[in-house]
Amino acid sequence: MKPTLFLAFLAAPALALAVPVEAQEAPTANEQTDEQTPLEFRAEQIVAVINSEIDPKEVFSAEFLKAVPLAQLAAVSAQFTSQFGPAIAVESIDPADGTRGILALRMERAIARGPIAIDPSDENRVSELLFQSFEAIDDSPAKIEADLANLPGEVSWWFGPIDGSSGPLIADRASEQMPLGSTFKLYVLAALARDIAAGKRAWGDVVNLGDTRSFPSGMMQDWPTGASVTLETLASLMISISDNTATDALIDVLGRDAVLQAVIDSGHSSPELNDPFLKTRDMFLLKAGPEGRLHTYSEADADVRSQILEGIDEPVLPMSTVQAAFSGGPIALDVEWFASARDLAGLMRFMRRTADPRAFEIMAISPNMPENARSNWTYAGYKGGSEPGVLNLTWLLTDQQGRDHALILSWRNDDANVDQNALELIAQRMLALPR
Fold first, then answer.
1. The CA-based dihedral angle spanning residues 140, 166, 161, 143, taken in that order and rounded to the nearest 10 degrees
2. Do residue 66 and residue 94 come from a single domain?
3. CB-based contact 13:428 (threshold 8 Å)
């Protein structure tokens, strides 16, 4: 249930449209020419590292490899090449004559760009590499959809304007109900922001934290009992760092039924899947608690589920038990929060009609999109969610003409953990499609 991040090759990559330029010819990976600076030489070796043609220990500093083990480096390189094809050559490095510069690396279907640094005290080995953008080359909806379809398990996606004036740019299985992880918190935000817009509540309303706390992600589980916080603080922490205790506090303020009503009013196609509306603590205790209770809950109707939730805090489970339960593979993915990609696009429309504008400022605190990618949009709001076997990425984006778009990807695999990096790299490619 931690918030998802754009991760690619040790960094959070951005997106931009490609500007083709002529690539340089790469020399032999282990031989520095007289014309090359040390930084240029090491940059050329990155090509061979990504293509698994050279031992990374020859290229990266000891400190770098402590932070990024060889297995992780190999896994991310494999993700790069699966998404963008093999690395071809260094496009440019600026400046090239110092110990630090901006590297542009041409791959078969993208230009990867970001800072690189070398350590003169360690034979000028690479001490930093942070690819921050991937500029798509020769990509297409068909190629993206083929890569999405090849992911193990079930995947659905939807990207396009939400005003209904035209269909999505790219979509498949968009009506299928998928588990959301923490993306469900958008429904809590929608219920709160509607009440505030209607004058029933105010962002500055103060509540006091009770004794009952959820489990991380977040920080409020460690705050003192009775701490006074505003609804705006709870909502901001719920969305920006996916704070579970803040989320449950808001559900307590609003009531489960009020949040479920927001699910219904937003046009959700199967709202009964979210009845009763779970708090995060409920989900943790169900999945980490007795197996019989979890099975009964998963098979029960809404009334029986509500009865189970009424006594779920007894006995109280220690955090170590909860952490152990979620440290392995997927657990009972039918006990979750559910929505289809179309439902989430509908939620964005619903919020634009009913939510106080501050809600969109809160969604934009952590847009999960670097600055150079955001330049393509006048607004970027985001919430993602995950648990073992589940990943959802949901953006609300406004283009230069003021038209709202949604990008939504959901991935479920009941048999194994999902690869967050793989889906996020595909999300970048979707964002780079011409509109």
1. -10
2. yes
3. yes
Question: What's the predicted TM-score (pTM) here?
Answer: 0.81
Task: Tell me the chain's radius of gyration from C-alpha atoms.
Answer: 23
> Which string of b and e fits 294-307 if b means at least 16 CB within 10 Å?
beebeeeeeeebee
Distance between CA atoms of residues 375 and 25, nearest Å? 32
Residue 421, helix vs strand vs coil: helix
Q: How many angstroms from the chain centroid is the CA of residue 143?
A: 22
Looking at the fold, whether 115 and 176 belong to one and the same domain comes out as: no
123: which residues sit within 8 A by CB, 6+ positions away? Answer: none
Nearest to 85 by CA among 139, 42, 46: 139
Segment 345-358, tens digit of pLDDT: 999 999 999 999 99
d(CA 435, CA 431): 9
Rounded to a whole number, what is the distance in angstroms from the first to the last CA of the chain? 32
132, 197: one domain: no
Per the listing, tokens 């955090």 go with: 319
Rounded-to-integer distance, Cα 161 and Cα 348, Å: 11
Both tokens of 270, joined, read 């199967």
- The residue range of the domain holding 50 is 19-136
Q: What is the pLDDT of residues 10-61, one digit of tens each?
A: 333 222 222 222 333 334 466 788 889 999 999 999 999 999 999 999 999 9
Tokens read off for 97: 């004559």
**Cβ atoms of 430 and 170 closer than 8 Å:** yes
